């Protein structure tokens, strides 16, 4: 079949599975990103996230992840919630309100690849969702879906930045989308000015070792550094400050994905209820939630840290 026919099949199938955006780029080595990533790692901005140092070559070249890869398909799925937390409770990043996105999107990628094999023919590929050496945001920009903002997030002009990004690398060719060449951040510096820990730096650089999301999710130490006291603004799991202040997110629309419907406890538990939640109850309620990444002990550590801020 012709490339345009195959591309139409791909984008129709992606839409049917609920993805909000789908773009395609040629599978090539990302030389510019390689230099930026190397500089970022050399400055130890990954903190204790040593996994960021692994598989450097694979991060910058999709052909090392999928033999004979020809195309990188980028897909985006809106997670902006229709309901928000009560304001006085420990705050949780919006991406974690519902079911773990890894579980939801992996299944969608499996179904998408199966659909392509059914309609186009034998296609080999691998799907990735934020858990493999893939530079998702760079590929999203290369496939025309948006631009990388000063806060490091991929921003769409129509709907803001509250999106999960998934990548499907395949050994089939498609019509390739033009890269997104504009940058609509302009002179705005709201994300830099508002970051509670000054983790966002000029030049679209985010010091991961200073980010609240890093401290509350990735850091596995028993204690959060004392110098961070008074700076978390009641964030218990992740942080949305740089997205909440972004003017483009005034265009955010509630997600239509049922799996991301907020878990009632996330919206309604008070500070005291969080503090008195048992480990068994936590494991039951959040069995399929991103909160399980921090585990019960991590959440309790974060709560104690927030209490010291009061």
TrEMBL record:
TRNA binds at residues 220, 297. Its EC number is 1.17.99.6. Pfam families: Fer4_16 (PF13484), QueG_DUF1730 (PF08331). One of its GO terms (molecular function) is epoxyqueuosine reductase activity. PROSITE patterns: 4FE4S_FER_1, 4FE4S_FER_2. [4Fe-4S] cluster 1 binds at residues 185, 188, 191, 246. Binds 2 [4Fe-4S] clusters per monomer. Keywords: 4Fe-4S, Cobalamin, Cobalt, Cytoplasm, Iron, Iron-sulfur, Metal-binding, Oxidoreductase, Queuosine biosynthesis, tRNA processing. GO terms for biological process: tRNA queuosine(34) biosynthetic process. It is an enzyme of class 1 (oxidoreductase). Cob(II)alamin binds at residues 59, 130, 151, 154, 165, 213, 239-240. It is found in: Cytoplasm. Residues 176-205 form the 4Fe-4S ferredoxin-type domain. [4Fe-4S] cluster 2 binds at residues 195, 211, 239, 242. Its cofactor is cob(II)alamin; [4Fe-4S] cluster. Pathway: tRNA modification; tRNA-queuosine biosynthesis. It catalyses: epoxyqueuosine(34) in tRNA + AH2 = queuosine(34) in tRNA + A + H2O. Belongs to the QueG family. Monomer. This is Epoxyqueuosine reductase. It comes from Panacibacter microcysteis.
């Amino acid at each position: 079949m012709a490339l345009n026919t195959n591309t139409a099949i791909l984008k129709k199938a992606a839409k049917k599975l609920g993805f909000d955006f789908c773009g395609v780029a040629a599978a090539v080595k990302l030389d510019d990103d390689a230099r930026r990533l190397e500089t970022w790692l050399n400055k130890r901005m990954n903190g204790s996230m040593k996994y960021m140092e692994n598989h450097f070559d694979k991060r910058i070249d999709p052909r090392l992840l999928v033999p004979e890869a020809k195309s990188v398909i980028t897909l985006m799925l809106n997670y902006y919630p229709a309901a928000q937390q009560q304001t006085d409770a420990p705050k949780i990043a919006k991406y974690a309100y519902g079911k773990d996105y890894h579980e939801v999107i992996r299944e969608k990628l499996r179904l998408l690849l199966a659909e392509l094999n059914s309609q186009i023919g034998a296609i080999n590929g691998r799907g990735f969702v934020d858990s493999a050496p893939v530079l998702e945001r760079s590929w999203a920009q290369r496939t025309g879906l948006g631009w990388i903002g000063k806060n490091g997030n991929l921003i769409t002009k129509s709907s803001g930045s509250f999106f999960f990004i998934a990548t499907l690398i395949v050994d089939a060719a498609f019509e390739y989308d033009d890269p997104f060449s504009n940058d609509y951040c302009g002179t705005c510096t709201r994300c830099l000015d508002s970051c509670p820990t000054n983790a966002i730096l000029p030049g679209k650089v985010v010091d991961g070792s200073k980010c609240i999301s890093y401290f509350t999710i990735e850091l596995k130490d028993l204690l959060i550094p004392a110098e961070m006291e008074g700076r978390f603004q009641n964030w218990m799991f992740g942080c949305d400050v740089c997205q909440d202040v972004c003017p483009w997110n005034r265009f955010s629309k509630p997600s239509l994905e049922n799996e991301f419907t907020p878990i009632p406890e996330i919206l309604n538990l008070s500070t005291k209820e969080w503090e008195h939640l048992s480990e068994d109850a936590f494991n039951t309620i959040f069995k399929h939630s991103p909160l399980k990444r921090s585990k019960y002990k991590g959440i309790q550590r974060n709560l104690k840290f927030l209490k010291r801020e009061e």
